[in-house]
Predict the 3D structure of the following.
Amino acid sequence: MEKLTIGQATMTWLNGGITHLDGGAMFGVVPKPLWTKKYPCNEHNQIPLRTDPILYC
């Protein structure tokens, strides 16, 4: 976990795992051959995305 403290406030990044979302919905009008170079998709056209929530205290 990474932490950042500013004054009395502390932000902590938590590990939220990975979720899979539809690549076409994420990139809209960008053609699939372009975005699959950076984000390869599975057989369901889904790309893996990290979900790292931030805890603010």
Summary: The first strand starts at residue 2 and ends at 6. The chain has one domain: 2-56. Helices lie at 23-27, 32-35. Residues 2-56 form one domain.
